[in-house]
Amino acid sequence: MPLNEADTRAKLIDPAIHKCGWTEDLIRREETAGTVEIINGKARRRSRGKIDYVLRVKVNVDTQPVALALIEAKKENLPPGHGLDQAKGYAECRRHNVQFIFTSNGHLFVEFDCFTGYTSTPKPIAAFPSPAELRARYERGMGFTLESPAARPLLQRYAGGEGARRYYQDAAIRAVMEKIARCESTRQPKRALLSLATGAGKTFIAVNLLKRISDAGQLTRALFVCDRDELRTQALKAFQNVFGADAAEVYRKPDGTNNAKNARIHIATYQTLGIENENGDANFLTTHYPGDFFTHIVIDECHRSAWGKWSQVLTRNRNAVQIGLTATPRQLVESLKRQTEESETDSLESLPLAAEMGAIIKPIRPIDPRAPYGVTREVWADAEITANNLAYFGEPTYEYDIAQAIEDGYLAACEIQKGRVNLDYTDATRLFGEGFITKPTRTGGGSEPPPPPPPPEPTISVEGFDVHITDAGRFIVADVDGKAMPVPIEEYKSRLAARLVQEVRTLNDFRVRWIDPPSRQELIDTLVTSGYSPTVVRMVDDRQDYDLYDVLAELGWGMNPRTRRVRTLAFTYKNEDWLNTLSQRAAATIRAIASQFERGGTEGLENPQIFQTPEVRLAGGLAALQTAGNPRDLLIETKARMFTA
To answer: Could you tell me the residue ranges of all domains in the chain?
Structure first.
């Protein structure tokens, strides 16, 4: 019977690419949240989102893996390239910001190369490229090596581990770093534009992008500019959570000095920089910040605010890395581009900044004031500003639109509610907020009984932690600033990951601690007493088939998690050479011991009665191991090999 996609991956593809050098720590499983559906007026999330497997390479053991490719399993009886055409290849490359797409039925594979647009003919799975081969092709296509100083930010780890970020956020961050590295190697202005749907987490991207650049030793001072106070407040909190006192708000203190004078990350609005409107003179900016003061500038909502007199923020820092964040709908932008490309003009007045800074662009004539039917002037004006963005920054380095966000489940679909506007002809609204007295209602005599009260929210308790499941989502009651507060599960996982990597720096260190029972228990106790339970996360994510080792390794270091069954299977084929060095009975006993992991996980391998279990005893038991060496040492080695499988 042909294997399905999951079995093809576990039994055919994984063993084959492992022989080519793709170890477990180089494979990342990216799972989306699952689409939110609105049924009968209520939101409901699908239990599982889409799962993609990303191949990554490491320059050193402790460096952040860099994503290069996507690999997709097909049913064993399907052609290896089933469903892979050029359009899908480009779309998937853009979505994950990778340069190669592989599809395989376990026997043959097909590759799409985004650099060339070429789709290969089917090849034997044994000829799958190694990490070194794929890295060399990536570096040739990018125009820089991963060991060059320009690529150093790509190699810096996330400050709070990889459990906090979403796949598209990581793709956007890498896209900017790659663009900056290419610009540096070609001596072009270092500019990048990111276009993401509102609510997709642009502040998270900005914080982690600047943090990794800072950790690479390439950030001196950075400016984050937004156009509203609420965005500044949100950004200040996010930056201070990562940079601490190195991030400060820009404003004039009573003594006339700049509050952010000694900070490395300056967070401002255009108003606090002295630019109240397009005609502002930027007096605070020019007084407190000399030219080229910043090495990095991030402009939030740049489709609303980067032009006119406001552009002094950019023109006074010509040598800075300049990053624009925008959410303007691409449909209007493309419409504007088509309109402008069909026209000719002999003036660059519509693009003063791009012209001033020497951008090589096609002139754009002023936009037709007659906007398309159904499009407001404000939205049309946004499209005009975004055309300026495209002329200055170039095409977006990475895009993530609202349709993709809804499909992935990170944004909920909208439900349109029709209603009627009520006009207050009697001025009754003047009484809103005033106390009032009504006649007491009569009890009894009614024809219909009152509706039953709504059922209580389901609550699950795990290790003393309460988990609430509501229509709005899943929450864990955790300690927040000394108070018991409901925390969304994604935020809870993010905090757990940050605490984990604070205790254990690398995946290898984590594996060493996990193998040692006292050290493992100390680590888990530390997490739980800090308010974060790995068991709760496993239960809420419905991962009872996974050992806690895999749950934590994925949260902290982005390791591809395996079910206990798949990890046991991987142990068998990855350690075939080692097992063949042992006697037949000793090897059979080791396999029987490994099978206890499938049933009981880590605790199954450490069962004091493991030699009394029927499988181990039938295979040869303790006596068989004694012929191969010290049984205790063999048990420890088996456990170590299990967690590297």
So the answer is: 5-142, 168-406, 459-557, 564-642
Tokens (6 digits) for 95: 């979505």
The dihedral through the CA atoms of 201, 206, 209, 210 has a sign that is: negative
Mean pLDDT, the chain, rounded, equals 84
Predicted confidence band at 461 (pLDDT cuts at 50, 70, 90)? low
Q: What angle do CA 201, 203, 204 make, to 5 degrees?
A: 65
Asked if pLDDT for residue 353 goes beyond 60, the answer is no
- Reduced to 3 states, what is the DSSP secondary structure of residue 101? strand
User: Which residue, among 56, 62, 60, has the nearest Cα to 26 in the 3D structure?
Assistant: 56
Buried b (16+ CB within 10 A) or exposed e, 568-600: bbbbeebbeeebeebeebbbbbbbbbbbbbbee
Residue range 168-406, CATH number: 3.40.50.300
Tokens of 249: 């708000």
Cβ(219)–Cβ(243) below 8 Å = no
Q: Flag whether pLDDT at 15 surpasses 90.
A: yes
H-helix or E-strand spanning residue 466: strand 465-470
- Residue 276: the pLDDT is 60
> What pLDDT was estimated at residue 348?
31
Sheet holding 483-488, edge to edge: 459-462, 465-470, 473-480, 483-488
Quick check: 325 and 200 in contact, CB under 8 A? no
Residue 224's SS3 state is: strand
Q: Is the pLDDT of residue 182 over 80?
A: yes
DSSP assigned state of 133: H
Location of structure tokens 């002295």: 274
Residue with tokens 């906090």: 164
Q: Print the SS3 string covering 247-286.
A: EEECCECCCCCECCCCCCEEEEECCCCCCCCCCCCCHHHH
Cβ atoms 26, 63 nearer than 8 A:
no
Contact between 108 and 80 (Cβ < 8 Å): yes
Mean pLDDT of all residues in 134-143: 98
Is 538 within 8 Å of 548 (Cβ atoms)?
yes
**pLDDT category of residue 363 using cuts at 50, 70 and 90:** very low
What are all long-range contacts of 611-619, with beta carbons under 8 Å and residues at least 24 apart? 616/589, 616/592, 618/592, 619/585, 619/588, 619/589, 619/591, 619/592
CA pair distance 570, 322, nearest whole angstrom: 46
516 is written with which tokens?
A: 């040692």
Give Cα 511 to chain centroid, integer Å.
24
Instruction: Identify any residues that bridge with 584 across adjacent strands, giving them in sequence order.
Output: none
| Per-residue pLDDT reduced to its tens digit, 297-323 | 999 977 655 455 667 888 899 999 999
Q: Rounded to whole angstroms, how far apart are CA atoms 113 and 116? A: 6
Asked if 555 and 497 touch (Cβ cutoff 8 Å), the reply is yes
Q: CB 558: neighbour CB atoms within 10 A? A: 27
* pTM, two decimal places: 0.79
Coil vs helix vs strand at 366: coil
> Dihedrals φ, ψ of 204, to 5°?
-60, -45
Kindly tell me the sign of the dihedral angle through the C-alpha atoms of 293, 297, 299, 300. negative
CATH topology of domain 5-142: tt1808, chain A (3.90.1570)
